[in-house]
Write a structure and sequence with these properties.
444 residues, 16-stranded mixed beta sheet, 10 helices, 21% helix, globular
Length: 444
């Protein structure tokens, strides 16, 4: 990121764009003793073809709240995902009763070291990276979502590699002349915490993290030196998660993932089944019959909660989780589903935590509009039924998993619960169902 650190303009200097002024006014109420905090500023603005969508990232010293287990920390707040200018240079003008730009800004809370006198700037680059994703995909980030990052957030601590999204506990939604702006806080997480979110739901796991001072207390301050997950700090929390999954299923309705699908012939499924070796599963049913061609998908790895749907907020392309998008779908005879290992490892979760509870799940590309939506028979408004379990609308595939196929899939895909033990590439074939799943390395 090309930028500079400099004080935030004082209240009396001008002109400050109205949308930016709205954010500054809120921050000055929270930090009245810090009228000129440091900022990271994009040297070449996004509307001038600069690489960084966020015009400014402001950094405050927050004393924390010892009574709630909140340590002293640095508080980062972005400016640029919302409409700062109101003149269409970056965002379409929506009026003052809708979202301003994307309708949110990002925040981040980083635990402050005892002798730290100035905030590190690496969180600013992290926030710019997320902002680039939002601008590129037009997918909003909402409280309860997760980001499967798989890299140390600060480039050093390999234990904090993932991100969860929460509402910022100090900054309420504001109304600017160009619409409303919420504030979504990035929360650093371990792999085990990300998996718990995927298997259960984001808000509940965040609530567990709020109970522990090691995970930042009530304000979810990220400690990059943390070595243990919440389940290592308090093993009883694992039982809480397992009970929640059993009773409620998973709220995760979709992820962006590396996946592809192909409309192939039933004959090719049968031939693939005849070549299978150990570890590949085949139903011993009669040989099916013929037809057709192919389509494809790509890329990883952002998770979307059910709670986003129907909340009245504009989330642009977030309706990838809505199976009713599959209107005027074309029936398909046979399909091949293809996933990288990370995406495939979610399939047991999808079956047990979603479809068994009468829900749906979508794997969607962040590069194209292609997607695979798996549905149970209890999902209404679909384009599939037990006589026609596969249908496509353009590059969007819908797959019905009927009850009598569910148990077999859960059993056959059980090894994906332990992805580190899976040898790639691997193929699962069900000739009697005209379906196969191929699991490949990322590069394939």
């Amino acid at each position: 990121m090309k930028g500079s650190s400099e004080p935030m303009p004082p209240a009396q200097s001008g002109p400050i764009p109205p949308g930016l002024q709205g954010i500054y006014s809120m921050l000055r109420r929270i930090y009245p003793d810090q009228p000129n905090p440091l900022q990271v500023t994009a040297l070449v603005k996004y509307w001038l073809n600069g690489p960084d969508p966020l015009d400014y990232i402001t950094m405050f010293a927050n004393p924390g709240n010892p009574h709630e287990g909140v340590p002293a920390h640095w508080h980062y707040v972005s400016c640029g995902l919302s409409d700062l200018h109101g003149d269409s240079r970056v965002h379409n003008i929506t009026g003052d009763d809708g979202p301003s730009g994307f309708g949110f800004e990002l925040t981040f809370r980083l635990k402050r070291g005892p002798n730290e006198n100035s905030p590190p700037t690496w969180p600013a680059e992290l926030m710019q990276s997320l902002a680039r994703y939002v601008f590129h995909s037009e997918n909003n980030l909402c409280s309860g979502d997760h980001v499967s990052w798989h890299n140390a957030l600060d480039g050093c601590n390999q234990n904090i590699q993932q991100m969860l999204m929460a509402d910022d506990p100090q900054i309420p939604q504001i109304i600017t002349p160009f619409g409303y702006v919420g504030f979504v806080q990035i929360v650093g997480a371990c792999n085990q915490e990300l998996q718990a979110v995927q298997h259960w739901n984001g808000p509940s796991v965040l609530d567990l993290m709020r109970t522990l001072p090691e995970t930042g207390g009530a304000w979810l301050v990220t400690d990059m030196s943390r070595k243990k997950s919440i389940f290592e700090i308090n093993p009883s929390l694992q039982q809480t998660v397992e009970e929640g999954i059993s009773q409620e299923g998973s709220n995760l309705s979709g992820v962006s993932a590396k996946c592809w699908w192909a409309h192939c012939s039933a004959e090719s499924i049968y031939k693939a089944g005849s070549r299978v070796e150990n570890g590949t599963f085949v139903e011993s049913e009669s040989r099916p019959t013929s037809t057709t061609k192919s389509t494809r998908i790509t890329e990883p790895s952002f998770g979307r909660e059910d709670s986003e749907l129907g909340d009245g907020q504009d989330s642009r392309l977030s309706n990838y989780s809505n199976v009713s998008e599959l209107v005027r779908a074309k029936p398909l005879e046979a399909v091949q589903l293809r996933f990288n290992l990370e995406a495939a490892s979610l399939l047991p979760l999808v079956l047990r935590g979603r479809l068994l509870h009468g829900r749906h799940f979508t794997f969607k590309s962040i590069i194209t509009e292609s997607a695979i939506t798996l549905v149970s028979r209890d999902v209404t408004g679909t384009s599939v039924d037990e006589n026609c379990p596969y249908a496509a609308s353009g590059t969007w595939l819908q797959v019905l998993i009927p009850d009598d196929f569910m148990d077999l899939l859960i059993s056959d895909l059980d090894d994906l619960i332990r992805p580190e033990e899976v040898r790639l590439p691997k193929q699962y074939v069900w000739p009697g169902r005209n379906m196969m799943i191929t699991v490949v390395e990322d590069a394939e």
